[in-house]
Amino acid sequence: RTQAEMAHTCRGTINLSTAHIDTEDSCNIVLSNGGRTYHLKASSEVERQRWVTALELAKAKAIRMRNNQSDDSGDEEPASQSDKSELHSTLKTLSSKLEDLSTCNDLIAKHGAALQRSLSELENLKLPAESGEKIKAVNERATLFRITSNAMINACRDFLDLAETHSRKWQRVLQYEREQRIRLEETIEQLAKQHNSLERACRGAPGLSSSSTGITSTAKGDAQSAKGEASDEDEETEYFDAMEDAPAFITVSADPKHHRRSGSNLSGASEGHPEDWNLEDSVFESSNQSSYNESTCKDLLPKKRRRTRIPDKPNYSLNLWSIMKNCIGKELSKIPMPVNFNEPLSMLQRLTEDLEYHELLDKAVKCESSTEQMCFVAAFSVSSYSTTVHRTAKPFNPLLGETYELDRLEEFGFRSLCEQVSHHPPAAAHHVYSKRGWTLWQEITIASKFRGKYLSIMPLGTIHLEFHSSGNHYVWRKVTSTVHNIIVGKLWIDQSGEIEIVNHKSKDKCQLKFTPYSYFSRDVPRKVTGVVSDADGKAHYVMSGTWDEKMECSKIVQSSHGSTSTEGKQKTVYQTLSPKVLWKKYPLPENAENMYFFSDLALTLNEPEERVAPTDSRLRPDQRLMESGRWDEANVEKQRLEEKQRAVRRRREAEAMEALEEGKDYEGYIPLWFERKVDAVTGELICIYKGGYWEAKDKQDWSTCPDIF
Description:
Number of strands: 26
Main location: membrane
Oligomer: single chain
GO molecular function, one term: cholesterol binding
Organism: Anhinga anhinga
Family: Belongs to the OSBP family.
Strand order of the largest sheet: 13-14-17-18-16-15
GO cellular component, one term: cytosol
């Protein structure tokens, strides 16, 4: 095994390179390494000796591999003449030792067979009983020696065959590599001479250096040169991985000051004016400023002072046995899960956290172009995942009829309302209205699958966003979230999949790909890439970034069809202007690691507020107790609320059975502030806000609210 493999072993493995191999008696073997000990039992003494021999050989191999790895970890130096002579000397010594090994192999086989014959003849002689027993014992020892010798002989024979087979091949490969290196050195020398002559010619040609007539793009290691000067672009070239269901593409940065249209090989698919990037709208320029400045400006606005911290998370150890013993004999749905796995927020509040970067939508309102607006909508869809990177604890499951409001109309221009509209399957409806020109609504059902080492969380449902002035209606879905190391190890979260954002008015599209984490990938972790295109399929912008840090947008100046990739997909080369930052994550507050890694917004979500509905998540007692650090009381309260909810469900089931027996229709649970309608755009049945909540809040008339707490 390599060291990397040894670092990721499963249970029951032991590192033989540092292990001790001992024998207790005629049949038992003891393997020990540090505090771990394994006892193995063989069927006979001969079988035990075979195992000991095999283990010793494996241990020697493991030690050699470890030493080789430590030797190979140093920096390589160019081969000199002394290195070559040393290599030849080493090969000559190895050949000599190989011949010695072959001779010893033959001698052991010869003498071993002679010893066995002599012992067999001695055993056949008529000797006293005591002498016969001793001869028998000696014969058994000789048998063990023969078995060990045969194992060594077989290993030697295999090594000899392998060495003889590959020796000539290795010599040919070595010679080929030397020739390749010489040819490469000659090629580099020629290229250097050509580069110098081109530089001299370029300096001597007036006007040529002021314009650029082409670019250079590289795909899969194959270089294709276009006419003209491309050294400036080459230094800023960026590459994007192709999406699985979308055409493969590469982007090449261009200088807007020097770019001119030309008859180069980039004619074709789409073209644009680079000067438009600087002049056509100020929205991108304002978004290019740091998000930190915006958060600072927010603090200067007159607004209600909100809390900036919550009590530190208690350092309670989780007793798994106390959980398991409470599960014995109970139905799965009745097992009380302790709050140790939770964070002091409900799923409705986590859904509201999607609005943390609502200013992206405020900027999108100002866009005159629908493709520009799509860029901000795409950045907003990615920003909703930035809070999940450290948040491995699960939110509280909302009770049926539970609500959550976030009224920031005076501060940020929007107000949000969530309601748990179904319990099996769990579904939440969400509606946000902004007086700055947009409305967002969604119904999300959470489906999850436990797959052994990780948990897949799949949010089902569509998100709708409509801008009031333009009527642009955007629809998209969320990607899959995966929680890794559920059983053993440190929990971590990844997002993977694709988001297709569609503007149902203009038919613009943006295809975003969330690249899943791979240990062997060279990509930046948590990478997101995508392309914004219009109704005709013409690409306008390239989106790039990470879902936990920032998203950038690059305007496409020109595009062309490049070479075909190894997967058979047509590559598209996009020449883009320098990227502009649309979204950047706010820094976490101080001491966030002790406050469940909550962001500034998350810290305020469960802050007590007056005049909210009696079903609001802020009033949930078990959640409030957990936030205060009283986890034992929170567990008791959580169990009481869940049992109360089960009693209500049993009563509804009894009413449904009674209605069925009487031949009447039973409607079941009806959401209080939302109603199910067929969406005119997607044709799906979705819960849409029917109004009345904010009016009831103004009147403080909560008579229709159920008693769920």
